Structure formats: structure tokens, C-alpha cells
Amino acid sequence: MVKNKMPLVMLKTLLFLVLFLPLFSSYISAQTRDPGELFPPDKIFLLEEPRDWQNTEEIMDRLHLGAGDIVADIGAGSGYFTVPLASRVGDKGLVFAEDIQIEMVNYISKKVEALELKNVRVIFGKPEDPSLLDNFFDLVFLANTYHELETPFLMLENIKKDLRYSGRLAIIDWDPAKQSPFGPPIEEKVPENTVINELERAGFELIEKHNFMPYHYFLVFRKKSY
Ligand SMILES: C[S@@+](CC[C@H](N)C(=O)[O-])C[C@H]1O[C@@H](n2cnc3c(N)ncnc32)[C@H](O)[C@@H]1O
Description:
Elements: H1 2-31, H2 44-47, H3 56-63, E1 70-74, H4 82-89, E2 94-99, H5 102-114, E3 120-124, E4 137-143, H6 152-162, E5 163-174, H7 192-201, E6 204-210, E7 216-223
Parallel strand pairs: 1-2, 1-4, 2-3, 4-5
Antiparallel strand pairs: 5-7, 6-7
The protein binds S-adenosylmethionine.
Domain Methyltransferase: 68-184
Organism: Candidatus Scalindua brodae
Protein name: Methyltransferase domain-containing protein
């Protein structure tokens, strides 16, 4: 009896592996894609240098923010984008500036205090979870941060929960297909297609692609409606 059952069990196991291994392996490989180095806090002054090459006002215009919108700036660093985001959403809006390095969080807190920005909240998050509020955000914004994410899929699951039904996720990051005189090493840059594939697998769909940036891609997603 046992002798006869063995081949069937093996066959079922084999069938299972053939059918499901590709799914697991792509999930695992995306989840464990080598992340870039975390931006070193002792170089925070570099994040404060003016970036003609990043055209902040053009980025802000293309985000189509309205007064009263609620935005999360994930991986906010020195708060370079937090300030213009806060100005766009106005007094009735809110910007949550989040980072996982305490030095960045302290730096932004001081900046927010010095500039008397009443509509900014500073959050010390976890690598897999920005620790925000569910179903709360009109826009989640990640600039120069996606390539540093240690667990992109867990992060995206949490972002999905935090976004409102009509909320958008904007990702701006270094494009390895565009040569740049500065930025992270090329092997740390994540290709645009990888980002789009990872986002699609995580349940997002691409709704806008902006091509004006010389060293970056700028992608906007929303949650897929099933
Ligand atoms: C290169 S800086 C970019 C800062 C800012 N967005 C900008 O463009 O000026 C990347 C920031 O992302 C933060 N970071 C990396 N992984 C993160 C994660 N999983 N969650 C939140 N922040 C993260 C780093 O600590 C760092 O401050």
C-alpha cells in the first residue's frame, strides 16, 4: 500500500512545485532584492543643497495637490520636499514627514520648528512600516528612497492600507538608464520597469509617467480596483 502511495505523493509535490515555485521565487526575490545603502546622516547637508536638476516646483505642479490634502513624505531625509509639500496643501492640509533614521527625524523636527510649519507631523517609522494612519492619505510621496527600501513588498502593503480609496503613490528615483554625475552607485539604482513590476504585483497600477527629469523617473500609481 505504502509503496503504491509514494509516487502519487511525489507527483503531487512535484506538480505543486512546478505550479507555484515561480510565484514564490519572484515574490521572494523582489522582497529580498538587495537594497541600496541608507543615506548616511552625516551627509545630510548634501540633501539640503539646491537641486536645479530636480526642479521641485515642476514636481509639485505635476502632483496636482489641493489645499487640504493629506500627504505622507516617506523617507523624508532632511525634509527637502516636506517644506514645498506643506506649502501646497496649506493650513487645512497635513504632511507627515517620516524616516527610519533618528538623525533625519531630529533634523526635520528642528526645521519644522524653525519654519513654524503647523501642518507638518514628524514620524519615526520602521523599515517595513511607516507607522501612519489607515485609509487617511491623498498622496504618498517617495523621492530618492525606493531604492533604499529593505522590504519593498511589506512597505507597499502598508502604504496601500494608508492610502484612501482614490489616493495616489508617487515614486521618484534614480534611473540607472540615465547617466548622472552624482547619486547612488549604478548597482543600487532600481530600473523603472522593476519598480513598475513590483508595484503591479503589490496591487497598484501606473496612472502617470513624467519624463522631464534628467536623472530620475517619476511614476504615479493608484490602488488597483478589482
Ligand atoms: C536619499 S534620502 C532622500 C531624502 C528625501 N526624500 C530627498 O529626496 O531629499 C533617502 C531617505 O530614505 C530613508 N529611508 C530608507 N529606507 C526607508 C524606509 N524603509 N522607510 C522610511 N525611510 C527610509 C533614509 O533614512 C533616507 O533619509
